[in-house]
């Protein structure tokens, strides 16, 4: 069966989908996106992703081409049309396609925003990486300063990930002014003496939907949480480290810049948080 995608109001086979060469998402990364996980054909943390989408849109004065209720229906239709059981949905809203390339934004009354959604399959529950954990490399954070807005300007994170792969790592942790900001596409945590430490929310990092849920579950499970800055050196001396994202849940980190974390295998707190997260999110899926 060919994949069905959603483009500007229509469900079409992926091979027939078209967007304009003048689309500002394509020309200027003038677009915001969300990735929502699907397990058992249902959406995880949908409300959180939609709230963040609205925030990204409003921070960039971009109009939404559909209502948030319509978005839920489009997500559900796409799941059904693609028989998606486990994986996710990628959603992108762009500032549309004016007649000419111009740094100034077009008037939204004249140029409607564009919207694209597509599904992808990915094993989320049984993930081999969970047993092994990932190795990360540190690299300077050279992204723009509004990382709280989920834009499609992903060249630097993509570059950082490639540098990490060249070093035999699966991901990079970005570092600014001596402190870890986040991973290329995930939030970063360390655990020391039972305390879960992660950077506080600001414009420096994406406000992860998984992060919010993980911290809430950790507190509910009587674990200690500290939202503060930490360095690579502190991370290398931690008992555990892990990252969170919609498509990775909580993934243990076992090595940072060649230094083994804890005993070099996924830590108990990381594993426990993943278990709780998986169980609770599946219960609440819609
Ligand atoms: N990335 N930080 C960054 C820079 C991210 O790109 C992401 C998500 C996160 C985690 O956010 P959440 O828990 O809401 O998924 C943190 C998605 C998954 C992606 O780009 O594919």
From TrEMBL:
<keyword id="KW-0663">Pyridoxal phosphate</keyword>
<comment type="function">
    <text>Acts on leucine, isoleucine and valine.</text>
</comment>
<dbReference type="InterPro" id="IPR001544">
    <property type="entry name" value="Aminotrans_IV"/>
</dbReference>
<dbReference type="Pfam" id="PF01063">
    <property type="entry name" value="Aminotran_4"/>
</dbReference>
<dbReference type="InterPro" id="IPR043132">
    <property type="entry name" value="BCAT-like_C"/>
</dbReference>
<keyword id="KW-0100">Branched-chain amino acid biosynthesis</keyword>
<dbReference type="GO" id="GO:0008652">
    <property type="term" value="P:amino acid biosynthetic process"/>
</dbReference>
<dbReference type="GO" id="GO:0009082">
    <property type="term" value="P:branched-chain amino acid biosynthetic process"/>
</dbReference>
<dbReference type="InterPro" id="IPR018300">
    <property type="entry name" value="Aminotrans_IV_CS"/>
</dbReference>
<dbReference type="GO" id="GO:0005829">
    <property type="term" value="C:cytosol"/>
</dbReference>
<protein>
    <recommendedName>
        <fullName>Probable branched-chain-amino-acid aminotransferase</fullName>
        <ecNumber>2.6.1.42</ecNumber>
    </recommendedName>
</protein>
<dbReference type="GO" id="GO:0004084">
    <property type="term" value="F:branched-chain-amino-acid transaminase activity"/>
</dbReference>
<keyword id="KW-0028">Amino-acid biosynthesis</keyword>
<comment type="pathway">
    <text>Amino-acid biosynthesis; L-leucine biosynthesis; L-leucine from 3-methyl-2-oxobutanoate: step 4/4.</text>
</comment>
<comment type="pathway">
    <text>Amino-acid biosynthesis; L-isoleucine biosynthesis; L-isoleucine from 2-oxobutanoate: step 4/4.</text>
</comment>
<dbReference type="InterPro" id="IPR036038">
    <property type="entry name" value="Aminotransferase-like"/>
</dbReference>
<dbReference type="InterPro" id="IPR043131">
    <property type="entry name" value="BCAT-like_N"/>
</dbReference>
<comment type="similarity">
    <text>Belongs to the class-IV pyridoxal-phosphate-dependent aminotransferase family.</text>
</comment>
<dbReference type="InterPro" id="IPR050571">
    <property type="entry name" value="Class-IV_PLP-Dep_Aminotrnsfr"/>
</dbReference>
């Amino acid at each position: 069966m060919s994949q069905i995608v959603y483009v500007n109001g229509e469900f079409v086979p992926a091979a027939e989908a078209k967007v304009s060469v003048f689309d500002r998402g394509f020309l200027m990364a003038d677009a915001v996106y969300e990735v929502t996980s699907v397990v058992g054909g249902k959406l995880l943390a949908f409300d959180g992703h939609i709230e963040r989408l609205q925030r990204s849109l409003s921070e960039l004065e971009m109009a939404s081409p559909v209502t948030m209720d319509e978005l839920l229906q489009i997500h559900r239709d796409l799941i059904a049309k693609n028989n998606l059981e486990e994986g996710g949905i990628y959603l992108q809203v762009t500032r549309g396609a004016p007649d000419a390339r111009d740094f100034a934004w077009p008037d939204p009354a004249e140029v409607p925003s564009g919207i694209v959604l597509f599904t992808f399959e990915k094993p989320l529950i049984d993930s081999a990486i969970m047993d092994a954990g990932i190795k990360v490399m540190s690299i300077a954070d050279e992204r723009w300063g509004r990382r709280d807005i989920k834009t499609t300007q992903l060249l630097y994170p993509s570059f950082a990930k490639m540098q990490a792969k060249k070093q035999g790592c699966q991901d990079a942790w970005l570092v600014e002014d001596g402190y870890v900001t986040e991973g290329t596409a995930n939030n970063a945590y360390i655990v020391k003496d039972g305390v879960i430490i992660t950077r506080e929310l600001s414009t420096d990092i994406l406000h992860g939907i998984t992060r919010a849920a993980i911290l809430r579950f950790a507190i509910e499970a009587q674990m200690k949480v500290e939202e503060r800055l930490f360095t690579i050196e502190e991370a290398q001396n931690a008992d555990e480290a892990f990252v969170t994202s919609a498509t990775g849940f909580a993934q243990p980190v076992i090595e940072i810049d060649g230094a083994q974390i804890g005993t070099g295998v996924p830590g108990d707190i990381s594993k426990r948080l993943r278990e709780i997260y998986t169980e609770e999110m599946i219960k609440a899926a819609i």
